[in-house]
Amino acid sequence: MTQPENPEIKATGTTTPKKGAKIPRQPMPEQAPEDRRHNFEEVPFGYTPELALLESSRCLDCKKPGCVEGCPVHVDIPGFIRLIREGKFLEAAQHIKKQNALPAVCGRVCPQEEQCESKCILGVKGESVAIGRLERFAADFERASGQVQLPEIPAKTGKRIAVVGAGPAGLTVAGDLIKLGHEVSVFEALHEPGGVLMYGIPEFRLPKEIVRAEVDYLKRLGVEFVMDFVIGRNATIPELFNNGYHAIFIGTGAGLPSFMGIPGENLVGVYSANEYLTRSNLMKAYLFPKYDTPPIKRNKVAVVGGGNVAMDSARTALRLGGDVTIVYRRAREQMPARAEEIHHAEQEGVKMMLLNNPVRIFGDEHHRVVGMECIRMELGEPDASGRRRPVPIPGSEFRLDVDTVIIAIGNQPNPLIPQSMPDLKTTKHGTLIVDQETMMTSVPGIFAGGDIVSGAATVISAMGQARTAASAIHRYLTG
Description:
- This protein is α/β, with parallel strands linked by helices.
- It folds into three domains: about 5-145, Alpha-helical ferredoxin (Fumarate Reductase Iron-sulfur Protein, Chain B, domain 2); about 160-255 and about 415-479, FAD/NAD(P)-binding domain, CATH 3.50.50.60; about 260-410, FAD/NAD(P)-binding domain.
- About 35% of the residues lie in helices and about 15% in strands.
- The chain is built from 18 helices and 16 strands.
- It has helices at about 5-10, 35, 50-55, 65-70, 75-85, 90-95, 105-110, 130-145, 170-180, 195-200, 210-220, 235-240, 275-280, 310-320, 340-350, 415-420, 450-455, 460-479, and strands at about 160-165, 185, 225, 245-250, 255, 270, 300-305, 325-330, 350-355, 355-365, 370-380, 390, 400, 405, 410, 445-450.
- It has a five-stranded parallel beta sheet. It has a five-stranded parallel beta sheet with strand order 6-14-7-8-9.
- Helix 5 runs antiparallel to helix 6 (about 90-95), helix 7 packs antiparallel against helix 8 (about 130-145) and helix 14 (about 310-320) packs parallel to helix 15 (about 340-350).
- The longest helix has 20 residues, at about 460-479.
């Protein structure tokens, strides 16, 4: 396919540097902190073609690429970077899509620094290739060009698959199976596909138009989406089989929030991160009164937790006008959030209260939050996770004046589907038990992947399990 002329490259006379040239890792342009803290627009602007060419030239094109090994969906990373280096941006996007149906999403939210980029040979003595930024660039270039090509779909097999949940795992399974000639229907409880990509990640980190574009690509491939449909209520899984589906994939995620079990968690002004982010994302509370959703603006906000969801909640609350403090019981180096997200939060004005843990939330006579009691912590011996366990310091309690508390300490799978089908075996944590090589559950013909299996994890790990499941479903249906 002929690559369209790129006027930016032509006008500047940019040429591709020699492969492996000693060029520093290219930073990604982004909004200034003082500007972005007041809006919900995406923070990074993305690479220009010139920056993408420079960054792609840093790749050594290893014969045994560790980056591919580090990618849960095994994208041919050197292959797509080579195409970018040659100026074949559209071909690069199409190359990625052979293994990854959601490249624009993964280029934005995946922890590349812990996965593909951590295996880059350049990272041994310097900085790894910015694989995620290049993936985002290729996907964005293709979308902006309006030249999104569909792969050739084989003849229909006559097999029908029901996918429960339109999150990252469900979308990945649907994309893989539709390209193998099967008919795929995705059942989603909410009114828009995307799952956590739509309701759990803020607009400034993952614009909704990006998710909608990825979903539209699947629709164009032939995937059917059935919205506002709760499996276990509108229909059970056995009823899906009775309606002519030959296999079922469960990808309902982990949408049941965890709480701390401390006094005062039932007060007005205490939110789970799920509720807080959903109201902001799907219900557009941040656009009140244009959208008739009760505003969730507060003055003094405490966010409990240290992961990416805590950062998302804190940065959302900040944009809604709050004075925001993250309260985390461990030290900074133990925070599970991406370093980039912590950095962005601090740049924007979020305060970090580390080695502190809430023990009580106070309310007034109207049962509204007015404060939170915390206790200082110190690090003891390592626990099962390998991190030093936080230990309370006796007598160190103090009060923090807040009017909102957002609990972001993790999620559990919703028990609705297992309860409606007792034959599905679960762990004590409520996750589905599967054969890790096929992702089949204890019931033949029913497969599962993502957070419903692993507990709350990353988007790309859910997609990796989904690809394994899709391959196994295809083998199961074709004998």
